[in-house]
Write a structure and sequence with these properties.
The protein has 9 helices and 11 strands. By secondary structure, it is an alpha/beta fold. The two termini are about 15 Å apart. The chain is globular, with a radius of gyration of 19 Å.
Length: about 270
């Protein structure tokens, strides 16, 4: 669950329309729908319902929104407090982040930073693996690391949200329409599109597959998450990739896993 997902849910509830909410907050409607669907999957219940009067909150949504509003308010206060305390900020903020987050999360954050601190530039170091992020922070090569929390981390850290994996399948695959989620054991006999061994996404993929009794057989390996998504959509084999990195035009090729495969993201 991320603050952005909470913001999207509240925007749709207030606007009464996915299209109006997408226009208001400046994102595409498929992205908005995908993020709310992921939030509903995590909550385990639909939060919005389409009616003749527009989009309205379900009973679960009405119970959820007050705390979501409180969480957003707390985040805004934290941001304001940090800004007040950061008047002596360096001229360049050095940031290391795992690559999937650089592509999916940082663009909007960096834009907001530049607008707020026009005199402070950002230098982003992209990392294939969470270990590299921690190593850069410990070696004082960066001021801030963003990614999953390393094991036995003793330094300061702040929870930012969640990163979740989803399966990409070709459009004609019967498993796309068989239930709301998919168990990885249903894909055990297939050849897979896997990430390169240096990419940190491969580790949780292998753990998830082994937990249901198989090692995925690679049809192809790639270094890029978008390439993995498109190869999977073309029918080469299933791919398990971060949902926020899946291209918008492949939203219809996405299947959430049962159980969910997700982890917290920290700074």
């Amino acid at each position: 669950m991320t603050l952005r997902q909470l913001e999207y849910l509240i925007a749709v509830a207030q606007a009464g329309s996915f299209a109006a909410a997408a226009t208001k907050i400046g994102v595409s409607q498929p992205t908005l729908s995908q993020q709310i669907r992921a939030l509903e999957d995590e909550v385990g219940a639909p939060l919005l319902s389409r009616t003749s009067r527009g989009v309205v909150l379900t009973p679960a949504g009405r119970a959820f929104v007050p705390d979501a509003n409180a969480a957003l308010s707390s985040a805004r206060r934290a941001m304001a407090n940090g800004r007040r305390a950061g008047t002596a900020a360096p001229e360049t903020l050095r940031v290391a982040a795992v690559r999937s987050l650089v592509v999916a999360v940082l663009p909007a954050v960096v834009k907001r930073w530049i607008e707020t601190y026009p005199g402070v530039s950002i230098h982003i170091r992209e990392c294939e693996h969470r270990r590299q992020v921690a190593e850069m922070v410990l070696a004082d090569k960066v001021d801030l690391g963003i990614g999953p929390l390393p094991e036995a981390w003793k330094g300061a850290h702040v929870e930012l949200g969640w990163e979740q994996l989803a399966v990409v399948l070709p459009s004609g695959d019967p498993l796309l329409h068989a239930g709301s989620r998919i168990g990885l054991d249903a894909l055990a006999q297939r050849d897979w599109v896997l990430m390169d061994e240096r990419n940190g996404i491969l580790e949780p993929l292998l753990r998830a597959c082994r937990s249901v009794g198989f090692d995925p057989t690679p049809a192809v390996r790639t270094e890029q998450i978008e390439a993995a998504s498109r190869l999977a959509a073309a029918g080469i084999g299933p791919a398990l990739v971060p949902i926020n990195n899946i291209p918008e035009d492949l939203a219809g090729n996405v299947k959430m896993t049962d159980p969910p495969i997700a982890w917290k993201v920290w700074a």
